[in-house]
Amino acid sequence: QVQLVESGGGLVRAGGSLRLSCAASGRTFRNYAMGWFRQAPGKDREFVAAIRWSGDSTLYADSVKGRFTISRDNAKNTVYVYLQMNTLKPEDTAVYFCATNPSIRLSSSGREYDYWGQGTQVTVSS
């Protein structure tokens, strides 16, 4: 059974940092790209960042470029994906989801992702 479990969310003041983690298990994710998305109350889900299997290529939304960093660790049975979030702003407040993409290329479209986690809440106070 495929499982994606996010952790690391919480409440932080503007300007602060958080590091989100996602553990993906239950099948082989070799050559899968991984991504982070977020959804704020009353808004559509939006792309945040993605990383290729090899980790040598990344893609970021303009709104987080320069502040967020995505990385991954392809362990034997579990793939870990991280999102280091610095200089957080109140508009970063959202539920953050990780997802898997069975393609070696990067994509910002949620339609290309097949497995999703349950999400972790990030709240940034002003």
Describe the fold and architecture.
- There is one protein chain.
- The protein is mostly beta strands and 126 residues long.
- It is built from no helices and 11 strands.
- The chain has strands at residues 3-7, 10-13, 18-25, 33-39, 46-51, 58-60, 68-74, 78-85, 94-101, 115-116, 120-125.
- Strands 2, 4, 5, 6, 9, 10 and 11 form a 7-stranded mixed beta sheet that branches. Strands 1-3-8-7 form a 4-stranded antiparallel beta sheet, with no helix packed on it.
- A hairpin with a 6-residue loop joins β5 (46-51) and β6.
- The chain is globular.
- The mean pLDDT is 96.
List the helices and strands and how they pair.
Elements: E1 3-7, E2 10-13, E3 18-25, E4 33-39, E5 46-51, E6 58-60, E7 68-74, E8 78-85, E9 94-101, E10 115-116, E11 120-125
Parallel strand pairs: 2-11
Antiparallel strand pairs: 1-3, 3-8, 4-5, 4-9, 5-6, 7-8, 9-10, 9-11
